[in-house]
Amino acid sequence: MKSGNLNFLEPSGPLQACNVVMKSGNLNFLEPSGPLQACNVIMKSGNINFLEPSGPLQACNVVMKSGNLNFLEPSGPLQACNVVMKSGNLNFLEPSGPLQACNVVMKSGNLNFLEPSGPLQVCNGTALPLPLHFFLG
Predict the structure, then answer these.
(1) Is the separation of the CB atoms in 99 and 113 below 8 Å?
(2) What would the pLDDT profile of 55-82 be if each residue is shown by its tens digit?
(3) N or C of the chain: less Cβ packing under 10 Å?
(4) Where are the domains of the chain?
(5) 3-state secondary structure the chain
C-alpha cells in the first residue's frame, strides 16, 4: 500500500498480516479473540496498533522509519522481535500475560512497558542514546 489503512476488526479466529509494505498509514488489529501475528512489516511512516487482543500476539521483523508500534491491553502472551525503528515509540500497555521484546534496534524514541502483570523480558536491545523506561504502576 502506498498510503491508507489496513484494518483487522473483531476477528474470532487466528489473524495474520505478513509481508506488508506501507509508505504511510496505519496497520490496525482491533479486538481479535484468537492468535494474532504481524510479520515482515515495512512502514515508512505510520502506526502499527494491536488493540485489546485476547489471545497470543506477535510482531516480528518489523521495520519502521517513523511512527509507533503499540500493544494495548493484551491478555495473552506478547512478543515483539527483530524490530528496527529509525524514530518513534515501541509501547506495551497493560499486558496481563508474558511479555518479551528481543532484537530491538531504535535510532531514537522510547521503549515503554506500562503496567505489565506477567513476566517481562528485554533482550538484545540496542537503543542508544535514548532512555529505556519501565513503568510498573
Answers:
(1) yes
(2) 888 888 888 888 888 888 888 888 888 8
(3) C
(4) 5-135
(5) CCCCEEEEECCCCCEEEEEEEECCCEEEEECCCCCEEEEEEEECCCEEEEECCCCCEEEEEEEECCCEEEEECCCCCEEEEEEEECCCEEEEECCCCCEEEEEEEECCCEEEEECCCCCEEEECCECCCCCEEEECC
